[in-house]
Structure prediction request, 988 residues.
Amino acid sequence: MEPPAHPGDGPVELEFTVENLESALYQLYFDPDMEHKTFAQKWLNRAQASARAWQFCWALLGPDKLPEVQFFGATTLHINILHHWSSLPTDQHESLRMQLLAHILRFSSGPKMVLTRLCVALAAMALNLIPQVWSQPVADMVRAFQPQEPECEGGSGAAQDPQLHCLALLELLTVLPEEFQSSRLAQPRRSQLREALAGEWGVVCSMLRQLLQSQDSSIQVKEKVLRCLSSWVGVDVPLGESHELVQDCFGALSKPELFDTAVETIVTAISQPDCQRYTEALVNLVPLVLGLHDQLKKAVQDNDMETSHGICRIAVAMGETHSRVLLEQVEHWQEFLALVNMILFCTAVPGHYPVNETTSSLTLTFWYTLQDDILSFEEEKQAVYLQVYRPVYFQLVDVLLYKSHYPPEGDYSSWSSDDKEQFRIYRRGQKHGKKNLVQDFCVKFLCVLPFRVDISDTLMYVYEMLGAELLSNLYDRLGRQLMDPQLSAVWQDTEALLFGFQSIAETIDVNYSDVIPGLIGLIPRINISNVMLADTVMYTIGSLAEWLADHPVMLAGILPMVLEGLMKAELSVSSVSTLKRICRECKYDLGSYAHDILGASQDALAKEVHKSSQCMWLMQALGFLLSALPEDQVLVRLHSLISPHVQQLDTLSTEEPNPTNKQSIVHILGMLSSLFTTLDVTRQADTFEGASCQTAAPSQCTQNPVVVVLQQVFPLIQTLLSRWLEDSEVVEAVCTVFDKSVRTLLQDFGPVVAQLSGMLGQIYSSCPQASTLDLARQIIHIFAGEEQHISDIQSLTEVLTSSTLAMFQRGPRDHPDIAESFMHLHAQILKRKPNLYAPDRVDLKALFHSGVISLKFPETPTVKAASLFFAELLPRWKDVPLLAEVLQADGKLLTETVLQAVGGGAPRSLMEHFSEVLLGLNRHCPALLSQWLGETLQTPGFPSAQVSTEQKHTFSQQLLREQTNKRRVKEIVKEFSLLCRGLQGSGY
Prediction:
């Protein structure tokens, strides 16, 4: 077959004829040339939006056409009904409806994609006509699809098959509520349609029940019935009117071909929160769920994961969605208890997740919901429920610990890395460290991202139900385990019990628990030769760091285990994070252990036991430790710690740059940054009263140890930068060392300001980089108000500004990060110290223009920074004479730039930032803004040819009326931007 001529080839637009449309569709589907496909796609889009679309779509649906052509015709119908309904005369509505019904009947034998699209088109038409014009669409559709009706003229022989009629009708009834759900509708219209559709549910429900119960209905028909019910449940049809149909769905679970669809339908139906209003219907459904228990047991016995998974979903949906309602039905308490035990059976399903089973994870959110509902009752009722359900929760603890067991090491080693990661998440999720119970739950249950509650979470929630008795239970079991050589040989049992302790201690305040001292005493008895057990021991110790801070005498038995773990690469994450938590929480009690901690840490660093990120954590831990030592020891210990790394850095600074050297340099600088992030000696005087200066050198008493070190390594850093000045990573790493230091030390960093300011000016003049500007901004933020530093800061500001303005003159487009940091820097100056702008030393006009240029960048952070710059500049224009001159001279340019962006020159996602600039102009110089708006908007075609003079005038007047309401200004700018882009009313 020869390919047709290309409709996009010629300079003249081809007519939207059937022949040309078929040619374009051929190109779209079969032409290998991507350029031809793109032309065809664009041309076909124009065809669908044309006035001729109402006519040619029927010709494309002819029986002799290819399925792709027929599908395009049906899609065109749907698009026109959806977006161009008003262009069809009302006297043609009935004709359109009859044609659509006839074509649906004709295509009931296929192709399926064409049938579905025609059904969607008729559903869209129904939504346009309900209820005023078409009051009973469902009843009319059912009548139209009776095989004996003469309305099917023109239908094919296949369309006379009653089953095909039935399937076509079910397809139509399925897509009707789906089309309603997906349509963009105003709330009043949505409510009106929802009510009208609910009124039609009786007809649908009766028909679906009849088809589902009929012995003559095929599997295909019954599956379609189930899908149709799921679709209608989405429009909130009341359970009180559909519970008998839902009950019928349980019968489909016995048929393997219908099982999956029946599960989806039942889960969808009973998961609607509105179902809680129909208590009797829910209570009647519980026995049906319980009736699946035998089928569930058999599936588990036969290792039929699909069936057990599906039945578990139904049980959990019933229990989780309606636990409070079912708890309140006290006369049915035994049935609900049976449902709870059925879910417990699902939690305890044999096998290891995710290799041998995937069912148990479905149940974990239910256990939170149930305990939360029980604990929400008033005290008297709560006591009754606790009497019934506490024993279940103790069983649950056993089950959870059993499910958290690692498999035998031989089996575990055969697992894929993905399976191991899934098992880790199933046990403890993504977190280490303290969790807030309510906040954690809210984040998981309200967040739009997918989540899964893990075993650790569930144990944490169980504690809310069982309290201190749970910890005592775990402690007794752990004690028996460790005292019996046969029991302690099974390391998985010990690990699971420790995992239970850790899960609870991560969140719950265990400071007053009487079992924790015993637990601390038991931990050193544990043989940590197994890596997984050792990992959990480390995390358990870390979870008790706050308790150890209140009971420092217990550190002696625990700390050696942590330091021993520090030397094992396989325990890197757990041992380092645990040491960091201990150093943070217990730092004032670690003086007698400082030598051992520092020695083990330095040994681990020298032997390169840990990866880079763990080295950073370790240095943070040591920063906490050093912060609490007596002042006369800090500098000595600090020198001892960093000397090997400084010496290595010194050696690297003399070598020729290469990738290996660079990696080592960045790593060492990163460790110094991490150390200086937490090394803060300013608070130690509160704890160590006599931390005397009598035994310390004067310099140690008057200067912060970090400052002393920074001053000592300053020449080395300058040497290093002389070789690596053009490498942004190295420069950023150097700047981060000083940035972390100044953030931690604040005013104590003062002695370094002059030296650092000079160096920053030199390196930035040679090679401008954003990290230099960011560090300068931090210095200005802290020291701009101190007279002794103002001269150095002013000199630094002038150097940075002149160098950056020179870059802007050359063209800054390739440096959005520098433009962003430059705008943030000057926003900070305007906020903290606007008098840094000396009249003869800073070119404010060029600075203003750099802000305007930054507003034109497509990068959101740069535009945001520029808008912040103007937000700080505009309130001060009257106070700084030079600024006033610049604004009066170039304010029109700023206004024109913002309007151009709003009119289509910038992405719509940036409109919020441009609206803030306009609000600032209107708030602080309204008369000038009014003048600039008038002058710029009178230009024909500006900011867009899509807006009229009247629309521009309206926008200007609306904007000038708002000087305080930020939200309203954003709305005005957004609406005008849509007008300028021709998008108003298009659904954006």
Residues 278-433+450-527 form one domain.
